[in-house]
Design a protein that fits this description.
By secondary structure, this protein is α/β, with parallel strands linked by helices. Helices cover 30% and strands 25% of the residues. It folds into two domains: 137 residues, Rossmann fold (3-Layer(aba) Sandwich); 187 residues, Dihydrodipicolinate Reductase, domain 2, CATH 3.30.360. The radius of gyration is 20 Å and the shape is globular. It has a seven-stranded mixed beta sheet, with helices on both faces. A six-stranded mixed beta sheet has the order 9-8-10-13-12-11. Helix 1 crosses helix 9 and helix 4 packs parallel to helix 6.
């Protein structure tokens, strides 16, 4: 089997998970070269990696580069992404800088791997909540086209990064000890609370946040449905890992819960957990550190014709970021595009 020289830019929560996923999935890497703002050594899953400073020359000789951008921040790909492409790399970017760029495929391999066929060297990973939403939505849309959908997300703090994980842990411990709870990562206390704002305000969508806008525009691009109507409310919740999404779908034709279960159960990357009579439904604890997106609470939505309601849960650091990026690399190899 051919081996590939893999670069990784960023060694935070997503970058660390990318290394684990590469190893766990047996990715054919002859080298993993880690780049960050400064040179140092890092230990990941028992391996020691020498981290080099990110410079244009650091990309020389690499085949594939994964940019582990932090959601909501200007990623290193903005500075180095196309430079890496010029130096012969195929770039897979987890950040948001190029998702809506018409040159750049936006890919969830189980849904639209064909979008890779005409790539120009840079491929974008969708937003974590978009991935977890569309994994449960797209197989149904393929069977009966959607007219519209609404999504309410329940997003874990790991989507913000390590500092947010530490803040939730610190606040929970302070509460248990009867001490004051300090907030610095988020504008309000996150422990035992929910915050209905993720991202900044969108000037061209009054009242909506950037995270909510991503759900709309990214979903349209991935599904190839530019007229699809959608709306989202994105909420940060005091959960460490895994995002949950409550979905209400309206189809062009009938879609019974029974048919939806059959379609989803036969779809790759999805596990159906749906028996309310025995309290079988997906939770973040069921999904964390797992590869599959879990789907449950399937039921008719009587508020619209041809309506369906469901609940999806997935690990935002794995399938919502690191794993999806590695799967894109695997798809490129399988399709002989690299």
């Amino acid at each position: 089997m051919k081996k590939y020289r893999v670069g990784l830019v960023g060694i935070g929560a997503v970058g660390t998970e990318m290394i684990k996923v590469l190893r766990q999935r047996g990715f054919p890497a002859s080298e993993i070269r880690i780049m960050a703002r400064s040179a140092r050594s890092e230990q990941v899953a028992g391996e020691t990696f020498h981290v080099v400073e990110t410079t244009p020359a650091a990309f020389d000789g690499l085949d594939i580069v994964l940019f582990a951008g932090t959601e909501g921040a200007a990623g290193a790909s903005k500075q180095f992404g196309w430079e890496a492409v010029k130096r012969g790399c195929v770039v897979i970017d987890n950040g948001s800088d190029f998702r809506m760029d018409p040159r750049v495929p936006l890919v969830i391999p189980e849904i639209n791997a064909g979008a890779l066929d005409n790539h120009q060297g840079l491929i974008a990973n969708p937003n974590c909540s978009t991935i977890i939403t569309l994994m449960g939505l797209a197989p149904l849309h393929r069977a009966v086209p959607l007219r519209r959908f609404t999504a309410v997300t329940f997003q874990s703090v790991s989507g913000t990064g390590r500092a947010a994980i530490e803040e939730l842990d610190t606040q929970a411990r302070a509460w248990a000890a009867g001490q004051p709870l300090a907030a610095s990562v988020y504008p309000r206390q996150i422990a035992f609370n929910v915050l209905p704002q993720i991202g900044g305000l969108k000037d061209d969508m009054p009242g909506y946040t950037s995270e909510e806008a991503k759900m709309l525009f990214e979903s349209r691009k991935i599904l190839g449905a530019p007229e699809l109507r959608a709306s989202a409310t994105c909420v940060r919740v005091p959960v460490f890992y895994a995002h949950s999404v409550a979905l209400n779908l309206e189809f062009d034709g009938p879609m019974s819960p029974e048919r939806a279960r059959e379609i989803l159960a036969a779809s790759p990357g999805i596990r159906v957990l749906d028996d309310l009579s025995t309290s079988v439904f997906p939770t973040p604890l069921d999904a964390q550190h797992g590869d599959d997106v879990l789907v449950g609470r399937l039921r008719a939505d009587p508020s619209v014709e041809n309506g369906l309601a469901l609940w999806t849960v997935g690990d935002n650091i794995r399938k919502g970021a690191a794993q999806n990026a590695v799967q894109i690399a695997e798809a490129l190899i399988a399709r002989k595009l690299i």
